From TrEMBL:
A Pfam family the protein falls into: PMM
Catalytic activity: alpha-D-mannose 1-phosphate = D-mannose 6-phosphate
Pathway(s) annotated for this protein in UniProt: Nucleotide-sugar biosynthesis; GDP-alpha-D-mannose biosynthesis; alpha-D-mannose 1-phosphate from D-fructose 6-phosphate: step 2/2
Protein name (record): Phosphomannomutase
Localization in the cell: Cytoplasm
UniProt xrefs under NCBIfam families: HAD-SF-IIB (TIGR01484)
Subunit (UniProt): Homodimer.
One GO process term, biological-process aspect: protein N-linked glycosylation
GO cellular component: cytosol
Gene3D superfamilies xrefs: 3.30.1240.20, HAD superfamily/HAD-like
Required co-factors: Mg(2+)
Enzyme Commission identifier(s): 5.4.2.8
Binding site for Mg(2+): D10, D12, D209, F221
Length: 247
């Protein structure tokens, strides 16, 4: 892989529509791109969700050179697990429960167009907080996303957590349509670079859609070791890659 470019991809909004399955067109495109560059995936979701979204199941780690779940806190290279971090080990059970209890109390007072279930999702390296509930339908997901753009539900929630827990050493990242991630400072998507910067790549290209400040692609997009590309859709991702590698 040394000497080749690495193309590193966010998933939601970059390779797939948000929380939807990758298209056959995109799968075929990535297969061809793999002849020209090393392919890596870096998502905030857990491994199972990424595997489902990419429509490959557990064999995803054999198809793509690198798979970084939970921002790279769960890391695979060429089919093998090479790293795993734990937010529980980092901040401890007492702080974790205090934080989760506050989030649940805060969400109990929110009046939204709809509320469903699965408001807190504990992952290996982060906590995902979802005011509408992750069990909402696709239609309800899109309705909340539109509502959030007007009322800033997630941003105000994050601002509250920053003020409430300044000494917990946590940072927050808004991604996708309905939730945000909470994790120790430094455990954003740049975490995956610890596995990549000494691999001898000519360039590391990163493609993501949430590259504005506060978005979950922002830190990696702006890292000095990375050539960042902002995309607006999976179709735009294909177009930008075509311009780089085929024109």
């Amino acid at each position: 892989m040394a000497g080749k470019d690495l193309c590193l991809f966010d998933i939601d909004g970059t390779l797939t529509p948000s929380r939807q399955t990758i298209s056959p067109e995109m799968k075929d495109f990535l297969k061809e791109l793999g002849k020209k560059a090393t392919i890596g995936l870096v998502g905030g979701s857990d491994f199972c969700k990424i595997a489902e979204q990419m429509d490959e199941g557990e064999k995803i780690v054999e198809i793509y050179d690198y798979v970084f779940a939970e921002n790279g806190l769960v890391a695979y290279k060429q089919g093998k697990l090479i790293g795993k971090e734990s937010i529980l080990d980092r901040i401890g059970e007492e702080k974790l429960q205090t934080f989760i209890n506050f989030c649940l109390e805060y969400m109990s007072k929110l009046q939204l167009p709809v509320k469903r279930g699965n408001f807190i999702e504990f992952r290996s390296g982060l906590i995902n907080v979802c005011p509408v509930g992750r069990s909402c339908s696709q239609k309800e997901r899109e309705e909340f996303n539109a509502y959030d753009k007007v009322h800033n539900i997630r941003k105000e929630f994050v601002d509250t957590l920053l003020n409430k827990f300044p000494d917990f050493g946590l940072t927050y990242s808004i991604g996708g349509q309905i939730s945000f991630d909470c994790f120790p400072i430094g455990w954003d998507k740049t975490y995956c670079l610890k596995y990549l910067q000494n691999e001898g790549f000519s360039n590391i290209h990163f493609f993501g859609d949430k590259t504005n400040e506060g978005g979950n692609d922002y830190e990696l997009f702006n890292h000095e070791a990375v050539i960042g590309h902002t995309v607006t859709s999976p179709q735009d991702t294909i177009q930008q890659l075509t311009d780089i590698y085929y024109n």
